[in-house]
Write a structure and sequence with these properties.
Elements (H helix, E strand, L loop, with lengths): L1 H21 L7 H4 L14 E6 L3 H17 L3 E7 L2 H11 L4 E4 L5 H11 L1 E7 L5 H9 L4 E6 L3 H9 L1 H8 L4 E4 L2 H9 L7 E3 L26 E8 L3 H15 L3 E7 L5 H10 L4 E3 L13 E3 L6 H5 L4 E4 L12 H5 L4 E3 L7 H8 L4 E3 L3 H12 L5 H14 L3 H13 L2
Helix pairs in contact: 3-4, 3-17, 5-6, 10-15
Length: 419
């Protein structure tokens, strides 16, 4: 089976290679990821290694409290965190470099995962959310390394995709020692895909535990006066910036103190958005150019660096969370809600269905269908600032009620590691 899977995966990788190169996502560490270059770590002999995998920025942020908890509870173990994207790697290095070793994850070729396992010699593999890598899981299982999935979630798209290769998915899922899922729906889906029911547990969403309480920035650091009102459009997807700019153009005429911050989902799109804003008649500023200059008529800020969006959410008066008017699935709306901010999303929030259900009833999360709907809802909030403390209190209370997944996950890990 491994030979056949390697052949199929190799064909897909060759087809995907031109996209990696043309999009600028190819980097030198791919040689290591493919098992063609040694890992930049020494073979783990002195400590038992816990290997935590988090694919990109969102998953890294979710596991930061978990990794710190692992360091505190299991000081005799070494920690290695792997990720896939360059932004995820940079963020992991920033947040966790004093706690663990950060590496890129292997591409799922049999020779690559064997090399990683031989080098790291893990005693436990933890995967954040739900990724299924047949070669990695099968070889970890052959080496008697327990595998657990934490913060497990199965999106509509992933569920449909895994069902198409059910013959492979079922075999791989039996290698997993524990599934710690976000919701009952996610738990039901992983069982339907082939997980052993006794190993599936609903434990909650880790992202509630990494929710910030205070922003470490202030408006003046962003070049704005304290009196301005900030509309923050976070994690925007192609096509959404035009909608946001149209909304801002109309609303800024009604609310002269309103300013706009756009933080695209991918920071490399910042220059494209900068030019778009200019074509709409605005004079934007770049986050990377701060603190030079102040507003001086430049009432739109483009965030061209990752890792700052959560703190920027803390300064907002209103927040739009992207990949929800265009694209599919939505992005993490827990971050602005944890600050008690009125948060707007479009109709496409499939990946956060449970979060939407929880917060929509509080009035803090507001769904809109299109640009005109977004304008109407933002206007309603800005025109009645007396509602903001009520919205904030309701959102923060819901955050508090749903925290605890990290503690429960650590307890489950303790049961596995305990002799």
């Amino acid at each position: 089976m491994f030979i056949l899977y390697d052949i199929i995966f190799s064909v897909l990788a060759v087809m995907y290679l031109p996209y990696l190169v043309c999009s600028g996502k190819w980097h030198g560490e791919f040689w290591t990821r493919m098992g063609l270059r040694p890992l930049p770590v020494s073979p783990a002999q002195e400590k038992k290694i816990i290997w935590v995998h988090a694919v990109s920025v969102g998953e890294i942020l979710a596991v930061v409290p978990l990794v710190h908890g692992l360091r505190e509870r299991f000081p005799g173990h070494g920690l290695v965190v792997s990720t896939v994207t360059r932004t995820g790697y940079a963020l992991a290095r920033e947040k966790l470099q004093t706690t663990c070793t950060v590496i890129y994850a292997p591409v799922d070729f049999s020779w690559a995962v064997r090399r990683y396992i031989r080098t790291l010699k893990p005693v436990l593999y933890i995967s954040a959310e739900t990724e299924i890598w047949p070669n990695l899981y099968m070889f970890l299982h052959r080496n008697r390394v327990p595998i657990i999935q934490v913060n497990g979630r199965i999106s509509d798209r992933a569920f449909a995709g895994y069902r198409k290769v059910g013959f492979l998915t079922r075999r791989v899922l039996t290698c997993v020692s524990g599934f710690y899922m976000q919701t009952e729906e996610d738990a039901g889906r992983i069982v339907r895909l082939g997980a052993i029911p006794q190993r599936v547990h609903v434990i909650g969403n880790l992202k509630f535990d990494q929710a910030p309480r205070q922003a470490s920035l202030d408006k003046r650091q962003l070049g704005f006066d304290d009196a301005v009102q900030l509309l923050v459009a976070g994690s925007t997807y192609p096509g959404e910036e035009e909608i946001i700019l149209a909304a801002f153009k109309q609303l800024s005429g009604e609310f002269p103190a309103l300013r706009l911050i756009i933080a695209p989902r991918r920071a490399e799109r910042a220059e494209e958005i900068f030019r778009l804003v200019q074509t709409k008649g605005f004079q934007p500023r770049r986050f990377s150019s701060l603190p030079q200059g102040r507003e001086e008529g430049r009432n739109i800020l483009i965030v061209d660096r990752f890792g700052y969006l959560r703190d920027i959410y803390g300064l907002a008066d209103c927040v739009f969370v992207g990949k929800s008017l265009r694209g599919r699935g939505g992005q993490n709306m827990i971050e602005p809600l944890s600050f008690g901010k009125p948060t707007f999303v479009g109709p496409h929030t499939e990946n956060f269905r449970d979060v939407v259900r929880i917060f929509e009833k509080t009035g803090a999360l507001i769904r809109v269908e299109d640009g005109p709907g977004l304008i109407a809802q933002i206007r309603r909030v800005l025109a009645d600032p007396s509602r903001l403390p009520v919205i904030a209190a309701a959102a923060i209370e819901e955050i508090r009620r749903h925290q605890g997944a990290t503690r429960r996950t650590l307890e489950a890990i303790g049961d596995i590691l305990r002799p």
